[in-house]
Amino acid sequence: MRAVLLNTGTELLAGDVHDTHLAFIAREIFALGLRIEERRTVGDGAAIGESLRELFSRAEIVFVTGGLGPTSDDITRDVVAKLLGLELRKNAELLASLKERLKARGIKWVSSIAHQAEVPDGAQILPNENGSASGLYLKADINPQIRSPHIFLLPGPPRELQPMFRESGMSILRSIVPGPPRFERRFYKIACVGESLIEEAIGRKVLSIPGVELGYCARPGEVDVRIIGDRAALDQADQFVRSELGDLIFTADDETLEEVLVKLQTDRGAWRGQRTGRAHDGRWRTQTRKIDICACDDRHRRTERRFERKTGGNSLCRARVRRTNKSQEIIFPKRP
Hints:
This protein is an alpha+beta fold and 336 residues long. The protein has helices at residues 10-13, 21-30, 46-56, 76-84, 92-104, 158-176, 195-207, 231-245, 257-267; strands spanning 3-8, 36-42, 61-65, 88-90, 118-120, 124-126, 135-138, 150-154, 184-191, 213-219, 222-229, 249-251, 275-278, 285-290, 302-311, 314-324, 328-332. Strands 2-1-3-8-7-6 form a six-stranded mixed β-sheet, sandwiched between helices. The model is unreliable at 271-336 (pLDDT under 50).
């Protein structure tokens, strides 16, 4: 099913707010075999309706974020209702809940808040336990006279959107997505090797496996390798990736280099005094030494752990973990 994300809000286009919705929603729906095929960001205004009108004709699921609040620039529900030819009606239960919520918090009731209790005919309310703007779900072709996809209207603040999506949105998606997921995804995180070298080592062979999608994401000192496909194809690709990259892979899980190093050294008891040991690949030397850092203020003494991996004289990776009254440093020299 073709899924599209439409973020609304002039604050996003102005650079005042960072979009975190794509990463969150994409991760959540992948488990259902869905992928975001397109993401758009538009300001508060006519662009919302223009984008939705275009997307309705070719998308099967549309996630719309933002514009569900009580102010004049919160127009998402109005735009969607108008496009679909649906009446907005005040939901008595939702209105009572809003009044009770504000009263419990000592917030003065303003008439514009009642707009958040308006629901398009036939829409399902998605409860919001962390804010006043409820979400809405409108099933596909909710108005038989107008072609439309499944539509999820979600609040803009991540602290409201994410619990709502997990608790309400995902259960609806499970009911409308046909069958089990057709593909899986695997990650390999590699430190201190350029993506062009990784591509040279595995690219041609992995892409020769039918049905496998290969991608890279470079970041300072690290490269993420991503493969997507059905399980049988991924098992074949996984075997080749591990045989070629081997010890260069510091994790295949959702964890950072800092977390891997801290876990490694903690498990080996390497935080007490000065010590030389073996790294997880069995070949690289690790060295731990104690360092002192001045107090940040009169009440707390802060120290930090530093991790560096070096090739020659160039430091390529560094991680820091702040601690209290302790500080060590791990150095990964160039492999002999």
